[in-house]
Write a structure and sequence with these properties.
- Keywords: DNA damage, DNA repair, Endonuclease, Exonuclease, Hydrolase, Manganese, Metal-binding, Nuclease.
- The protein is built from 11 helices and 15 strands.
- The chain has 371 residues and is of the alpha/beta class.
- The chain folds into 2 domains: 251 residues, Purple Acid Phosphatase, chain A, domain 2 (4-Layer Sandwich); 113 residues, no CATH class.
- It has a 6-stranded mixed beta sheet.
- Helix 1 runs parallel beside helix 2, helix 2 runs parallel beside helix 3 and helix 10 packs antiparallel against helix 11.
- The two termini are 42 Å apart.
């Protein structure tokens, strides 16, 4: 028996407010759908943030409906939780999943009210528990739900948990909602969403997995993409002795990025050009010494670039730049915030969003929702 674990498609996201980046998001989702149909798993679990926001555009809704219809027509049901982006901001507003449920029917299963479902095939039963994203100020409620799910699952051999939370020690952000020990025990596979990089770890007798986002939502995700790619996991729970070898990474292609924070001499300039040459219509994010700026601009003009963001380094020597590059600037900045009695997590989070091309409004909304 096999299932697919996918998350964080963020349909409707317009990085840098570009039509092309919104289309990239849809293309990545469509490629995932096509690969899933090729594989023909028994079911799909989705760990949240299908959409970029709780009131998705017509294009985003249409993309989700068409993709999931293809899965259902191929006999593949979907089990999905709400991420922090899909949860309506006001209680009287409906979730976009309401529309999907109305169109897709019983093959599209959510966990908004019912916290678990049983998948049955050829006499075998799989317990699929899940809870929607929960902010920090309501984490006690989440603990109660996890306890209920743990009790309800105790008689099942195959147990899967869907969650969409920042997990302590795994999150790159300065805040988190839960720790590993908060998750219900005894599950074979913990299907995480919210963290955009791929994570696959053994935890006790089970597997903790974040399948990651299916496109690059922040430019600092590109380094991980080069190492671990983007896509989803194919999980085979057929063997009695299930382990990490039964989880296969299925990759897709994303938009190229060229990221270089330190173009300061001929060697680094040459390295940048070599990297640029191998990319097709990339997003370019770089910092360059002012003396090299004209040459850099000429190089960029000769190649088709989707988007560029260049920071010019003025009034600083190469030695000073190298010293900065070798210093843990983040830690220095955090110490400065502490010395001024600022909320370190909050201000550092804003700093991260601004310098890394993230969505500041979204960060503020998510952070303040936790109070």
């Amino acid at each position: 028996m096999q299932f697919v674990h996918i998350a964080d498609n963020h349909l409707g996201y317009r990085q840098y407010n570009l039509d092309e980046r919104e289309k990239d998001i849809y293309r990545a989702f469509g490629e995932c759908i096509d690969k899933i149909i090729e594989i023909k798993p028994d079911f799909v679990v989705h760990s949240g943030d299908l959409f970029e926001n709780s009131e998705p555009s017509v294009n985003a809704l249409y993309t989700a409906i068409e993709g999931f219809k293809k899965l259902i027509e191929s006999g593949i049901p979907i089990y999905i939780i709400h991420g922090n982006h899909e949860i309506p901001r006001r209680t009287f507003k409906k979730s976009p999943f309401t529309v999907l449920k109305k169109i897709l029917g019983d093959h599209f299963k959510t966990f908004f009210k019912k916290k678990y479902h049983i998948f049955k095939k050829e006499g075998r039963e799989v317990f699929i528990g899940g809870s929607d994203y929960t902010p920090r100020n309501r984490v006690d409620t989440l603990h109660e739900i996890y306890k209920m799910i743990e009790v309800a699952s105790k008689d099942y051999r195959d147990r899967i948990l869907l969650f969409h939370q920042d997990l302590y020690s795994y999150s790159a952000f300065p805040t988190y909602e839960i720790q590993l020990e908060d998750l219900p025990r005894g599950f074979k596979y913990y299907a995480g969403g919210h963290i955009h990089r791929r994570i696959l770890k053994c935890v006790g007798e089970g597997i903790l997995a974040y399948s990651g986002s299916t496109e690059i939502c922040r430019y600092d995700e590109y380094e991980d993409y080069e190492k671990n790619r983007k896509g989803f996991y194919l999980v085979d729970i057929s063997r009695k002795d299930f382990d990490i070898r039964d989880v296969e990474r299925i990759d897709i292609k994303c938009r190229d990025f060229v990221v270089d924070k330190c173009i300061i001499d001929e060697e680094s300039f040459k390295r940048f050009l070599e990297n640029l040459e191998s990319k097709y219509e990339p997003v370019v994010i770089c910092s360059v010494l002012r003396d090299l700026s004209e040459r850099l601009e000429r190089a960029l003009e000769s190649k088709k670039i989707l988007y560029k963001k260049i920071t010019y380094l003025d009034g600083i020597t190469e030695e000073e730049i190298l010293n900065i590059a070798n210093t843990d600037v983040d830690e220095v900045f955090k110490e400065f915030l502490k010395s001024r009695n600022y909320d370190v997590n909050f201000v550092y989070g804003i700093y991260n969003e601004v310098i890394k091309g993230g969505n500041l409004y979204r960060y503020l909304e998510d952070y303040l929702r936790g109070f």
